[in-house]
Amino acid sequence: MFVLPIIYGFAPDLDGGKKDRDKVVSTAMNYINTKYKAAGTSPSGFDCSGFTRYVYDRAINVKLKHGSKLQAKSGKKIKTKKANKGDLIFFRNKGKINHVGVISKVSKGEIWVIHATSSKGVILEDVNRSSYWRSRIAFVRTYI
């Protein structure tokens, strides 16, 4: 049996990031029904990028900038069909990135996203079933 060494407390990621992806999603789920607050960055109220920033920091200690446009410039861009739980999905309006959410599940044409909406606060929804969100999907980025 081959055993990989642990060097200076670092163990290789043998599960393809599954644990980190699970942590991101479970952390995000804890804030469903949190109210929306413009420029909000805490459980007392989130805007979309404040929510993703908070979740990534708490779940896996990844520091994201505040602002969907800024978050859209970091991480690794991937095809939407390659999206996985824990990735961030970005939306555009009039050609500009204006919204972001955490993907919680992808299956059979569904993309379930946890995101902070100005009308309902933090919600979980299948954005492919929403004509509003589906038509605005821009791309997906992974940070895991």
Notable characteristics:
144 residues, alpha+beta, endopeptidase fold (from Nostoc punctiforme), six-stranded antiparallel beta sheet, 4 helices, 8 strands, 23% helix, globular, disordered N terminus
| Proportion of residues in extended strands | 25-35%
Helix-strand pattern, N to C? HEEHHEEEEEHE
The proportion of residues forming helix, as a percent range, comes to 10-25%
What is the straight-line distance between the termini? 28 Å
* CATH-defined architecture: Alpha-Beta Complex
Number of domains: 1
> What is the C-level CATH assignment?
Alpha Beta
The spatial strand order of the largest sheet comes to 3-8-4-5-6-7
pLDDT < 50 stretches:
1-12
**Computed structural class:** alpha+beta
- The 3D shape can be described as globular
State the CATH topology.
Answer: endopeptidase fold (from Nostoc punctiforme)
Main sheet overview: 6 strands, antiparallel
Mean pLDDT: 91
Radius of gyration: 16 Å
Number of beta-strand segments: 8
Helical segment tally? 4
* CATH homologous superfamily caption: endopeptidase domain like (from Nostoc punctiforme)
General description of the model:
The chain is built from 4 helices and 8 strands. It has 144 residues and is of the alpha+beta class. It has a 6-stranded antiparallel beta sheet. Strands 1-2 form a two-stranded antiparallel ribbon. β6 (110-117) and β7 (121-126) form a beta hairpin.
Question: Layout of SSEs?
Answer:
Elements lengths: L17 H12 L11 E2 L2 E2 L1 H13 L7 H4 L4 E3 L9 E6 L2 E12 L2 E8 L3 E6 L4 H4 L2 E6 L2
Antiparallel strand pairs: 1-2, 3-8, 4-5, 4-8, 5-6, 6-7
Helix pairs in contact: 1-2
